[in-house]
Amino acid sequence: MLHGLDLLDEPLSQEVASRAVKTLARCQNSTGGFGGGPGQISHVATTYAAVNALAIVGTQEAYDLIDRSALLDWLRRLKQADGSFLMHEGGELDVRGIYCVLATVKLLNIVSPDLAANSEQFIACSQTYEGGIGGIPGVEAHGGYTFCAFAAMELLGKTELLDLDKLSRWLCFRQLAVEKGFQGRTNKLVDGCYSFWQGGAFPLLECALARRDGDEAGKVDLFNREALQEYILICCQGERGGLKDKPDKNPDYYHTCYVLSGLSIAQHRYAWDPVQEDIIVADGERGPVVVGNGQNLLPATHPVHNILPRHVTRIRAHFAQELPDA
Amino acid sequence: MSNDSEKPFSARPEWADVTPVSQDDGPSPLVPIAYSSAYSDAMSYFRAILQTNEYSPRVLDLTAHIIRLNPSHYSVWKYRQDAVIARDADLLKELEFVEEMAEDQPKSYQTWHYRQAIIRKLGDASREVEFINRMLHIDSKNYHAWSYRQWVISTFDLWDGEMADTNRFLDMDVRNNSAWNQRYWVLKNRPSGFTDEDIAAEVKYALEMIYLAPRNESPWAYLRGIVALGGKTLDDFPSVEETCKDLSDKGQSIPHALAMLLDMKVAVKDVDECRRICAILEENDPIRQKYWKYRAESVK
């Protein structure tokens, strides 16, 4: 919700910010990480969401809440020899885990080689003959897992281990000619949330291709932004607010977040900056691409973390000064 | 106990010795969830037994109750998993429970993971393919079902008959991409491996399926995949080029056919042909205009 509000340029009051921190505090476990609610065991997806939320709040109180040392211990318990992570103790294993963990530790400056060990192998093995990436090696290429895998490879600095040509083709073919939105898998239905999972893979792809081919930053531009924006604006808005999967579905917070994120991705250009060694917003002279009213323009999101870039910069700068405890 | 299943736990005599523990959301939580009283009641008892790590039959009852109310409650599933294994509980009953939950919420990660944990402990997967088939009958593309199917087959060596099973799925729906993916997976991973004849047979099969529905992307991707798996190239199979030409002429202009011709021309570095085909594709597959432009520019 916080990210949705950010994308709609809604300011966060001090009161809401503080309540957010206190609410998330009830979700943190002394053994490390955050669960979905008070009394729930820690889970890497809810930890990813909690740390992102705290990064959005961005206050000292928010940063001070996070017990990084316990978090690191917990993550080490989840790490598997094949490079993957369990989603929680005794839980399931798939490529989401690698993304949630690596994105979290990057923001908190607790990146450590043992956490990243073999992860690039696991991800590379999960790329299928179709070119997209599945949850674990062998399973079908899928948009959600493809985003997680690709963003994780970006964090690992190993995008060159993927077959980028096959991945490009698969991604481009996930945009449907009639509906104009993205499907998650071949021959399945369009869904507004894939506006981010599939659409959001394009900035990563374009930067990876630019690095591989030595092309000018921002030169490669592969998907039909205008068409995606049309799908979102025409088909994904709830009559009483919120955003949704497709017409005849109800809006919910998940779709609101990811459809808005997808709209933002479709409006902005990005480029690989070799000096900062990061993907940066680069709308260039033409500026953002906005379908419909100029008021439809949303701020750019960070294509790896999916929170606003300034929140990423601020939290990383904060924890860069502090060394992890062990 | 079963006729008490509608009573709150606070009214059940077998729970009288337990003091319920309410959820501590803090003083002014953001976006607090409006739990039903039935849910809060059950969860208050769960929080209580968490404190003592109780693994009794009444706890199995309680966790089942909560899971029925919330099939994605990962903490409760995990607790049940630990309890069932610690107590050496009736694993076959657990399989029935999982099936009940899977029918209700076929896409819950927790349900499928739990089944896998039970089967690992049981060491007997003889019921699993049939269970998965029942679930695929409800939703032939259920991602968890196919993923679990791969685990069952590879762990328990149930490869025989899987290729034939994919045929069945594809007969029902030639566009079932999960079944195509499964077919590739079997070929690639089965211990008996594959021969050149197997690859040639798969090429023939893919081309037949392509003719059934030429705009179906699945067999085209599969064709590319198995040719590469077999260490071959597309032009090792004359019928491939024939099919592509057939489907890109006669006013049909099937984009997948043109795209495959493009791949073949890229492989032999025929720059002019590539650019010519990309130009046609920009017109015939306009949603991907930028991609076809990029492909044209990438040919060197």
Descriptive key words:
heterodimer, A: 326 residues, mainly alpha, Glycosyltransferase, 2 domains, 15 helices, 47% helix, B: 300 residues, 0% strand, elongated, repeat (chain B)
What's the total number of strands of chain B?
0
**Integer average pLDDT of chain A:** 95
Mean pLDDT of chain B: 95
Element-level helix/strand string of chain B: HHHHHHHHHHHHHHH
Order of helices and strands of chain A: HHHHHHHHHHHHHHEEH
Specify the number of helices of chain A. 15
Q: Please give the alpha-carbon distance between the first and last residues of chain A.
A: 33 Å
Any idea how many domains of chain A? 2
Shape of chain A: globular
EC number (chain B): 2.5.1.58, 2.5.1.59
Family (chain B): Belongs to the protein prenyltransferase subunit alpha family.
Enzyme class (chain B): transferase
Region (Disordered) (chain B): 1-25
Structural overview:
- With 326 residues, chain A is mostly helical.
- Chain A has 2 domains: 1-78, no CATH class; 79-307, Glycosyltransferase.
- Chain A is built from 15 helices and 2 strands.
- Chain A has a two-stranded antiparallel ribbon.
- Chain A is globular.
- Chain A starts with a helix and ends in a 6-residue tail after the last helix.
- In chain A, 55% of the residues are buried.
- Chain B is mainly α.
- Among the domains of chain B are: 159-232, no CATH class; 237-300.
- Chain B is built from 15 helices and no strands.
- Chain B has helices spanning 37-52, 57-69, 74-87, 91-104, 109-122, 128-138, 143-156, 162-172, 177-189, 196-212, 217-229, 238-248, 255-267, 271-284, 289-298.
- In chain B, helix 3 runs parallel beside helix 5 (109-122) and helix 8 (162-172) runs antiparallel to helix 9 (177-189).
- The longest helix of chain B has 17 residues, at 196-212.
- The model of chain B has no long low-confidence stretch (mean pLDDT 95).
- At the A-B interface, helix 2 and helix 10 of A face helix 3, helix 5, helix 7, helix 9 and helix 11 of B.
